[in-house]
Design a protein that fits this description.
Elements lengths: L2 E14 L3 E9 L2 E3 L3 E5 L6 H9 L6 E6 L2 E2 L9 E4 L11 H11 L5 H10 L15 H12 L6 E5 L7 H16 L3 E6 L2 H7 L2 E6 L2 E7 H4 L4 E7 L3 H5 L7 E5 L2 E7 L4 H10 L3 E8 L3 H14 L8 E3 L6
Parallel strand pairs: 4-9, 4-10, 7-8, 8-9, 11-16
Antiparallel strand pairs: 1-2, 1-3, 1-5, 5-6, 10-11, 12-14, 12-15, 13-14
Helix pairs in contact: 2-3, 4-5
Bound molecules: adenosine-5'-triphosphate and magnesium ion.
The site of magnesium ion (MG) has 4 residues, from helix 1.
Length: 321
């Protein structure tokens, strides 16, 4: 699959009075595939917005290079094919939702009222088309922003913190909209620290910390390494130990035995063995690795040991982190 975004050592430095030049984005190698939802994660100040602005050609990199939809960043032709919803969008508050779409549509030479109506319907604002932006809630403003971002029928959307400060229902609405963008064949680049959200919708993610990408890869690969706990009664502890399951811990618990093993180990074999012993299974509990664990692990490690912060770990399907 073709790359929607590809950067090599993309760097942005700002002069600081105290520290000289500080690279707030440092030698970024980013790879986003066409048609995927890509999560760009990092704590406050990590360099997410700065990266997006470089990819959009709003600010210039200090060094390195990048390609968006096959064109070098800054190429004006690409602007017809991409769109951007900033983290703090500013809209003219006196405009209605419909007027806002008409205004931004006119910048692309689009005057088709039917298209504006369809977009308002898509984001569930068709009943509020004549309310002004100042009368819109935060969630409604976010949704009108997404409608606006679809005006030019973009192949690639940049959404900077699309669910920041929204309630759970608004979250779900935005999430469904983003998923529909992927179904329509668009690539979506989301910057966020709403990890549970990202976990639900993103195909691949990168974690950036202090301007450096620490992890990048398929979410399923990055979150591999989960465990499963099986408890049973009527089976001798030694019997389970004798199964010699790799990387497993077996211990006696009141009334039975508890086995803790990697999620990829053969669970069926354990169940069969318990049954063969006429034992009784009490529980099978998967302990999935969560994105939050990975994020905290990644970010905390680096704040403890900044000297190690230069290492970038790239994980693709089939590799282990
Ligand atoms: N124009 C600028 N001049 C100097 N430093 C800047 C400038 N713009 C951003 N920075 C610094 O770059 C770093 C990264 O900022 P950026 O806005 O990219 O972070 P972010 O990851 O988007 O954070 P947040 O989650 O809070 O939005 C911060 O330390 C910020 O102070
Ligand atoms: Mg930001």
């Amino acid at each position: 699959m073709a790359a929607a975004i590809e950067t090599t050592k993309l760097t942005k430095g700002y002069k600081s009075r105290i520290h000289g030049t500080v690279n707030v984005v440092d030698k970024l190698d980013l790879h986003v595939e066409e048609g995927e939802i890509f999560g760009f994660l990092g704590p406050n100040g990590a360099g997410k917005t700065t990266t997006i602005k470089m990819l959009l050609g709003i600010i210039y990199p200090t060094s390195g290079e990048g390609y968006v939809l096959g064109k070098e960043i800054g190429d004006m032709d690409v602007h017809r094919l991409i769109s951007y919803v900033p983290e703090r969008p500013y809209y003219y508050e006196y405009m209605t939702g419909m007027e806002l779409l008409k205004f931004y549509g006119s910048l692309f030479g689009i005057t088709d009222v039917k298209k504006f109506e369809a977009l308002l319907e898509k984001v569930n604002l068709h009943r509020d088309a004549s309310k002004t932006i100042s009368q819109y809630s935060k969630g409604m403003q976010q949704r009108v922003g997404l409608a606006q971002s679809l005006l030019n029928d973009p192949k690639l959307l940049f959404l900077d913190e699309p669910t920041g400060g929204l309630d759970p229902i608004a979250h779900r609405e935005i999430r469904d909209l983003i998923l529909s963008f992927r179904d329509e064949g668009r690539t979506v680049f989301i910057s966020s620290h709403e990890l549970s959200e990202v976990e639900l919708i993103c195909d691949r993610v990168a974690i950036i910390n202090r301007g450096v990408i620490e992890r990048q890869g398929k979410l399923s690969d990055l979150l591999s390494g989960g465990r499963v706990e099986i408890s049973a009664e009527g089976v001798p502890t030694q019997f389970i130990s004798d199964m010699k399951i790799n990387d497993a811990n077996v211990r006696a618990i009141p009334g039975g035995v508890l086995l803790d093993m990697p999620e990829e180990a053969d669970i069926t074999a354990v169940i069969d063995a318990v049954r063969a012993q006429k034992g009784k299974l009490l529980s099978i509990v998967p302990r999935k690795k969560r994105l939050e664990d990975l994020f905290v692990e990644t970010v905390r490690d680096k704040s403890v040991a900044p000297a190690a912060a230069k290492k970038t770990l790239t994980v693709e399907s089939g590799d282990k982190p």
